[in-house]
Here is the input.
Amino acid sequence: MKKIFNYIVLGSLILGITGCQDDFIDLNPPGQISEAVYFKRPSDFKAFTAGFYSQLPGWSFGSMDNNSDISANNNGNGYDLGHGTIVAGGGDWNYGGIRSCNILLEKVQSYTGEGDVSPYAGEAYFFRAFAYFGLLKTYGGVPLVTKVLSIDSPEELFMPRNSRYEVVGQILDDLDKAISRLPEEKNIASIDKGRISKGAAMAVKAQVELYEAAWERYVGQEPDGDGISTGAGTTGYDSGNVTKYLTNAVAMCKEIMDNGGYELWNKNADTKMGNLSSWYLFNLEDTGSNPGGYDKSTNKEFILYNIYDYTLKQSRINISWTSWQLYPSRKFVDMAVCTDGLPPSKSPLFQGYHGASDEFKNRDLRLLNYLSASNTITGVPTLNFGSLGFGGYGNSKYAVYGYGDRRKDNTESANWSIIRLAEVYLTYAEALYELNGAITDAELDASINKLRVRAGVARLTNALASANGLDMKQEIRRERTVELYREGKRFDDLKRWGILEESLNPSRLGKVVGGASYTTNYRDTNGNATSAYAAQTYLYGEEAVETPAGILNCVVIDSKLNHTIQRKHYLYPIPVSQIILNKKLLQNPGY
Here is the structure.
């Protein structure tokens, strides 16, 4: 049986339970446990690190890009950012995980016992960096705390915000220390799979460097409130950072790609899998979870992930039913290329929208996998807004209802991917292009085109881009958007590319319904709604927009009238409660 990291919190100590009776014999009674009698052997440090893993994101509908431009309905999380309704108030200003990391790192420094504890220090450095990266993306610069504080630490408890540049520097320094201490994936015992590896730390470092390089290039300092006006907010800024970060991100990715031991989970050559690798990858459990009989042990694509188990740690959320309701937008559907590798607007293979399923013909397998609930429908799906804002497309990524006897609701237990090899390929390609203003065909073949093979579409080449008037940078971004659909990356990407406002302020649209001059299953030659289209249920009616088949009417799910995203929304406001406690904290501009 696979071991899952269970833990009990005792004050600030987290004691791992291994299930072996001998492990309990030498323990002091719980009431006597203290730091003075703990951290005496490597197993104590290992048990303590189990608590770090609660910082990793896991199965949550808040991690699926709801309310972004590629999501049609405003289902739940992300409404404030997706609509520009963020207000100063509360917020997730949490240093608990950072404090736990600082405790362990201090204990490592004073450890004189036998056995190597450096891997556990590596985990602490990793999770401290991971926590600060989350704070950076949310607030920009924040106070840097790298030691254990007490009530006798007034200077640190009431310190001003460090600049974002100082925070990035600390994150990268911690990740370097983690990389030098953590084991490679191949050296992690099967019972410990899911613990942080050297490859995971390298992948996060590349992610941080690409994020910050793009932010400094496309966003700049305007949204930051960490003291820019006084000069304090530019501490640590170096105009050479963009080039340095991009160069190192490329190197990190190349090392993972060449020597990490990871590989894409592509089982499309197995006819039993029906070209559905990009679907089954995300609900992979035991051999009964797919027609090919593949289990989690066959997945070498996930690099950083949260482990789940049907017996020990189920998701406990209704993944299958709710995932179907996370409807994609018209924008996302039009993003996926055709099998000739060209966007629908450029491809002669694109079949248009006259028939309800025409737009899915000759298209990227990822579109068909992620939206299989849409393209496998027989007949014509009825357009009815309903209670959730149905735009004609159902989502099937993460849902497990497509094969055999699916798991009962709330018991689904596939692992949650945080960073996988596919993202490393995408980071590599984007960082190369941002660094050099170009990318070679060989570099595309080593990265993005591996994803295109699994997607069943033609290679992206410089010749293809040139002959068809494609912008290579936009094609790399397109590839990222389609591959990482609903993996919690979209808001961060829109921010760092500096296109949050232009992407989130337009309406979220559903299917093309056409009109008298462009008939569909939803409007006839007279422009009248057919029986398959309950037009009166769509509060915001229709909107004429540019599509790959020209300017056509589409149903509106969430009107542009509801969206007021501004530059200030690139960062959240510092929680008012924190500013009340610490008068030295400067608020982000506009709040």
Observations:
- The chain has a mean pLDDT of 90.
- The radius of gyration is 25 Å.
